What does this fold into?
Amino acid sequence: MRQKLIWPAAILSLFMFTSPVLAADAWVGNVTINQVTSFDSGIVMFAISGNNSGICNYWGSHFRLDANTDGGKQMYSMLLTAKAANRPINISYAASSTPNTTDANGCTQTTMARPWALTIP
It folds into this structure.
């Protein structure tokens, strides 16, 4: 009886201590920031160069982040630094829930891609 309980417990603990991989996560590298828009609500939207998968186009912007959070403030600072220095960036992000759309056919602020890591190479 004791041995029968060990295997389910071992399998359950494997799922509890491994981080999930989101299928919607994506990465794009060596892109140029075309525009950065900041709103008084603390929301920042920005656009990058090139055709990239998993993003939509909301009035010219592709990504949305919340600069009210500590992580959002750090990413906003990196965006401004890269833009001012004319440096490319790498972006890891959660893909848009309405990829390959525009503001005219489904892309909204809430469906835009959300960056979770930025790198200035």
Residues 29 and 90 are 4 Å apart (CA to CA).
